[in-house]
Amino acid sequence: MKSFLLPVILLLSASCATAQTTYEEICASPDKAAGLYYPYPVTESVNTKAPKGYKPFYISHYGRHGSRYLVGDEQYADPLAVFIAAEKADVLTEKGKDVKKRLENIWLDASERSGELTPLGAEQHKGIARRMYKSFPEVFAGNPTITAKSTVRMRCALSMAAFCEGLKEMNPKLEIPKESAPRYMKYMSTTTPRAREFAYTGARMSEKFETEIVQPERLMSELFTRPNFPESQRKTSKWLMLNLFRIAIDVPNTPCAERLDDLFTPEERYKLWQNYNYHYYNEMSNPTSAKGAVLDNGRPLLANILECADAAIARGNNGADLRFGHDSTIVPLLGLMKVEGCYGSTDDPYKLHEVYADYKISPMAANLQIVFFRNNKGDIIAKLMLNEREVSLPVKTDMAPFYHWKDLRNYLQGILAE
User: Fold this and answer.
1) 2-69+116-194+287-417 has which fold?
2) Mean pLDDT throughout 333-350?
3) Cα–chain-centroid distance for residue 43?
4) How far apart are CA 33 and CA 27, in angstroms?
5) How far apart are the first and last CA of the chain?
6) How large is the C-alpha radius of gyration of the chain?
7) DSSP label at 263?
């Protein structure tokens, strides 16, 4: 009974921790309002020593690319164009003129770099690799079998290169072949038919909430002297506020020293985080009305994880499979596996913070590591680490945070069979 209750207690504790995602938490740490744009938080965490006789021999890894620029030049240029037009119309306040100058400096740095990895993004992956090596040196001892694969996006390939560079800083003798090809998109960046079917419904739910919660009037009056500026077919006040917030939360990921945090009150910042948290939740996680459809996007990756683990165990030597992709794959994977704090289900955006907070799940450079251990008798156990912190699954164990691999494998195979 104790072996069953322990993971349940851990899951309940995780649920309570998630429920504390409140207005006060965002106010205390405003950077968390960045959500999926939150720069990777490097903090000390527990790394429970394996039971006596067990040594690490294999790591199965999936990592989101590191910090990047916004994915389209227009996400910088279009908001700036509004301020340029406002200046010509002589409707900018002094604050508006100051913001225009800051946007121009941000644009100078970001122009023609849309979606690309930043120096901070590269350093994030180097750091994760170094800490992985220090924590599990046996995995990389001798002549390990290591693979590194990424999606075809340059930011993912460069994240892979930085990660491998971090490992080779620790051990220059490591041989790590690196690949980035369309064939890997099939399991590292894909959308299933069921998920596509829900996309329209999810978008409508997000739009409705956005209309309710985004209130741009105060900000616009601070930036423009003319009421209701801007108002065109597309570039509305709401559109501008959302885009200014998106620039504001992403610019800390870049080398640019400009900041836009002062544009938003604490209440506005929290509501804007709620808006994006709900939007990406509908797009990538477990809204109740989706009936698990969005989580299907994690199935190909889970199948690959099991296939590679079986192959690594059959080889008998040590090594690692390193994969580099996107939030749109790691988020549904974590929900599909029911990793603690990653699979809450609701359609109520005002209660979403009780079960789901994007910055805890997939900041920039988010990563899942499944670390395998073996003893002299050939018995294999494993533990999971999300963003380098031990996490639990609803699987019976008598050695938490470790799981007998046979039990964990059966659980994950059962998910694929559903």
Assistant:
1) Rossmann fold (3.40.50)
2) 96
3) 16
4) 9
5) 27
6) 23
7) G
Record the pTM: 0.92
Lowest mean pLDDT, pick from 11-20, 76-85, 190-199: 11-20
> For every residue of 318-371, which 3-state class applies, written as one string?
CEEEEEEECHHHHHHHHHHHCCCCCCCCCCCCCCHHHCCCHHHHCCCCCEEEEE
What are the residues facing 403 on neighbouring strands? 382
What CA–CA distance (Å, rounded) separates 331 from 344?
A: 12
For residues 85 and 79, give the distance between their C-alpha atoms in angstroms, rounded to a whole number: 10
Confidence of residue 13 (pLDDT cuts 50, 70, 90): very low
Nearest to 366 by CA among 134, 13, 58, 34: 34
Q: How many residues does the chain have?
A: 418
Residue 234 has pLDDT above 90, yes or no: no
Beta bridge partners, 404, equal 381
Domain with CATH 3.40.50.1240 in the chain: 2-69+116-194+287-417
Distance of CA 36 to the CA centre of its chain: 6
- The SS3 call for residue 239 is helix
Cβ–Cβ under 8 Å, residues 256 and 105: yes
Q: Name the packing angle between helices 237-250 and 94-110 (round to 10°).
A: 50
- Whether 150 contacts 70, CB under 8 Å: no
Residue whose pair of structure tokens reads 């999926």 in the numeric block: 36
Buried b (16+ CB within 10 A) or exposed e, 105-131: ebbebbeeebebbbebbbbbbbbbbbb
| 189 vs 332: CA distance, rounded Å | 11
Query: What sign has the CA pseudo-torsion 331, 334, 335, 336?
Result: positive
Q: How far apart are CA 9 and CA 185, in angstroms?
A: 37
From its phi and psi, is residue 341 left (phi > 0), alpha (psi between -120 and 50) or beta? left
User: Which residues make Cβ contacts (< 8 Å) with residue 351, sequence separation at least 6?
Assistant: none
The DSSP element (H or E) to which 218 belongs, if any, is: helix 217-223
Report d(CA 297, CA 192) in Å as an integer: 6
The one-letter amino acid at 107: W
User: How far is the C-alpha of 311 from the C-alpha of 330, rounded, in Å?
Assistant: 22
Question: Residues 202-229: what's their mean pLDDT?
Answer: 93
Distance CA 4, CA 6 (A): 6
